Here is the input.
Amino acid sequence: GAVVSQHPSWVICKSGTSVKIECRSLDFQATTMFWYRQFPKQSLMLMATSNEGSKATYEQGVEKDKFLINHASLTLSTLTVTSAHPEDSSFYICSAGELPGGPPEAFFGQGTRLTVV
Amino acid sequence: AQSVTQLDSHVSVSEGTPVLLRCNYSSSYSPSLFWYVQHPNKGLQLLLKYTSAATLVKGINGFEAEFKKSETSFHLTKPSAHMSDAAEYFCVVSVGTGFQKLVFGTGTRLLVSP
Here is the structure.
């Protein structure tokens, strides 16, 4: 089955620094990837849609200058949390689907737990 | 707009007893619906999916769900709970033609006691 790999699985950073999270589709190509955020004991909230070769589409209320998304290839999307603050501490998860013709479900990475101290 | 409502934030069962996790959806057209499971500090695993084929959908680990249009429901069931089933379960609906853009329910935490 389709595999999405997310790295790192956890990261601790100092307030004011930037953190990059990678999301890779290992055995399929994904023109679109999605980034979600999950606060403790809450559901997943879509942050943005990452489109290969073009700008990401952000959901309302998500700061695009703070959460930089790059989707430079069909197998890699990155989320960079810039100038991180403690309130950015959260669980970030990406998802991807195969190009048209693949199964209808999205495949999720294992998530990244970000702690900003 | 598409949305899902998970009616129970927590469900507690004893091992070996049936599991019922409830989900109602709202959609302006025939939706694609999914159930995902999340174990602590882990990513999400697809349990099963409904995409306008058979209304009774069988998934992994003995789970199944029935799509009932008249009730706008997609409840998840399992005949006999196992300790390893303890996790967070999300009912999810796809948005628009890009079926991979998903809207999540608030989740139901399943607790299984010995």
